[in-house]
Amino acid sequence: MSSDVAIRIEGVSKAFAIYERPHHRLMQQLLPNAQRAWYREFHALRDISFEVGRGETVGIVGRNGSGKSTLLQIICGTLSPSAGSADVRGRIAALLELGAGFNPDFTGRENVYLNGTVLGLSRAQIERRFDDIAAFADIGDFIEQPVKSYSSGMYVRLAFAVAINVSPEILVVDEALSVGDEAFQRKCFSRIQRMRDDGVTVLFVSHSAGHVIELCDRALLLDRGEMLLAGAPRHVIARYHKLAFAPADLVDAVREQIRSDADGIAPESASDPAHGAAVDDSEFDPDMKPMSTVSYPSRGARIVDAHVQTLSGRRVNVLRAGATYVYTYRVAFETNAYRARCGMLIKTVSGLELAGAVSATWENAVERVEAGDEFEARFEFRCLLAPGTYFLNAGVQGQIDGAEAYLDRQVDVAMFRVMPEAGRLATAWVDLDVRASVDGTDAARRSGPPPG
Ligand SMILES: Nc1ncnc2c1ncn2[C@@H]1O[C@H](COP(=O)(O)OP(=O)(O)OP(=O)(O)O)[C@@H](O)[C@H]1O
User: Which Pfam families does UniProt cross-reference here (predicted)?
Assistant: First the structure.
């Protein structure tokens, strides 16, 4: 394996034995060579191959049960593959499912020592890092209590604090992070970002499109144990969403479409040639905050973190005319919802409604959403607007008592400014990319700067 490769997965398959009845397991153990097998095989992973380069950050996405955790466990060596090989080069620290790696009867402090030792640190090295670990975890006196008394959030805090403080060369993070509160999640992500900048290889499983786009150089889409696609995060996420929200009778067709897409165009680079790299001169002005935000009473859903970002996931509010951006927000559902869909609206300072869109028609809205589910609404748009200041609305609609109603609605939830552009020919608010010409050679000759 070349020294540029941190993880190489080659033809990995994993089959689990499924026993219909408890005594079948015993029968299989007692009669392993009998003609009849007492179990059926379930393939959680099928023939997966990919490499992760040293210093690369790769996101793994997929629907529930697609095999993500199984794959991470194989990479971390806590599960062995039924076929194929997983080669890992470098000290690996993993934050897998809650509960892995800690002894519930030991205190937080004891578990830090236990975990640190398992990850290859000497006692003296752990002693030197203990204060940093405790400070990052920030769980106060609980560090001296047995971890079985911890809340799941405290557990994650400590596990993460250990994982990032053992100087890993490879960091593997499962969904576990979503257990912490938002402030802690933010702290973790900025630390992961720093580690990534320092050259640590990061493998990251998440259901959050925003996190994958924000953090990863590349993304992999797993489905029913197969790797359907690998490529630029935004490209992969768009297809993952298509699959995740496909009605049951269309899932197979969408899978095939994604697979054929993967055989053809799966851009490996995060840049999008259609839109160019020029969006990078857009900026974020922290002082630009709307003072006119109105939140309507929530009816079972809550819109959070509405903002505009570049295609590569950078938060911006000073935009360049003609470039492409994403207006995005999350919706947390507090009760079950039916026929849910999200909407956006761009307005001028005086409230003139310039452009709006919804995520689906009413007929194609998400049929049923469970309490606790989260949406990430994304509206990709070209900024075809005159220089000036604009406000954004966000709304999520659903069916209440048979009629469509707002489950949450926020007016003027975000704002942005469009930068003036040299040589702009369009007038008024919207630039329709008009191709203007003037007939007559004399007129053509007289246009342009005055002579002299
Ligand atoms: N020990 C096991 N025995 C039998 N089946 C298993 C076992 N572990 C996992 N599976 C099955 O393998 C499939 C893949 O599971 P895995 O946990 O890897 O999925 P995942 O993509 O991480 O899902 P999620 O997003 O829900 O966490 C699932 O159908 C799961 O039920």
Answer: ABC_tran (PF00005), Wzt_C (PF14524)
Kindly give the number of the ligand 1 atom that is closest to the alpha carbon of 71.
18
Query: From ligand 1's centre to the CA of 68, what distance in Å?
Result: 8
Radius of gyration of the chain from Cα atoms? 26
The residues, any chain, with a CB within 8 Å of residue 282's CB and separated by 6 or more, are 310, 314, 316, 318, 319, 320, 323, 325, 419
Helix ranges restricted to H, 31-179: 68-76, 108-118, 123-137, 152-165
pLDDT digits (tens, 9 = 90+) for 284-310: 877 678 888 888 889 999 999 999 999
Strand, coil or helix: 416: strand
Q: What is the ipTM of this complex?
A: 0.96
| Eight-class DSSP state of 419 | P
Structure tokens at 422: 């040299």
| DSSP character string of 208-242 | -HHHHHHH-SEEEEEETTEEEEEE-HHHHHHHHHH
pTM of this structure: 0.61
Contact 192, 171 (CB under 8 A): yes
Start-to-end CA distance of the chain, whole Å, equals 67
Which residue, judged by its Cα, is nearest atom 18 of ligand 1? 67
What's the pLDDT tens digit per position in 57-82? 999 999 888 999 899 999 988 899 99
> Is ligand 1 within 6 A of the CB of residue 62?
yes
For the chain, percent of residues with pLDDT exceeding 90: 45
- Nearest-CA residue for ligand 1 atom 29 is 65
Pair 221, 193: CB distance under 8 Å: no
The verdict on the CB of residue 44 being under 6 Å from ligand 1 is: yes
